Amino acid sequence: MRIAILALLGLLAGCTSTPTSTAPSMATASAPAGPSARLNRAYAACQAAYERSATPTRTSRAQCLNAAENRYAGEFPDREALSQQQGLRLALAKRVDSGQMTQDAANAAYTRELTKIQAASDARRAAG
Are the C-beta atoms of residues 125 and 78 closer than 8 Å to each other? Predict the structure, then answer.
């Protein structure tokens, strides 16, 4: 599960924030961990829209990523963690867009906070 999270972080690094804290599709014998092809396509569509926009903002990209995850929310085992991660993504994107934070600082903050969100998610799952 943590490998899937790290892979997703690497996949969309540099975005003020990236999917996903809650690692969609927990691994089973028939399905590997990680986002489905349709969720990956939605993520890619968000990136493409960001890149081709005449006035791209990290906030609009974060909103697009959040909407994509909401469309496929069933893939995420912990909806509370997903919501927290989406809020974090959007808050950091707004700070970068407003000049309050650099992209590098936002990436570091995102990674740091994502670790905390994932740890809390793991603890909730372990508690049953």
Answer: yes
Going from the C-alpha of 77 to that of each of 23, 84, 93, the distances in angstroms are 8, 13, 25
Among residues 65, 34, 35, which one has the least CA distance to residue 49? 65
Helix or strand or coil: residue 35?
A: coil
pLDDT at residue 22, rounded to an integer:
52
pLDDT tens profile 71-113: 999 999 999 999 999 999 999 999 999 999 999 999 999 999 9
Rounded CA separation 83/106 (Å):
18
Q: For position 66, what pLDDT does the model report? A: 97
Q: Give the alpha-carbon dihedral of 33, 48, 78, 29, to 10 degrees.
A: -10
Contact predicate 120/81, CB 8 Å: yes
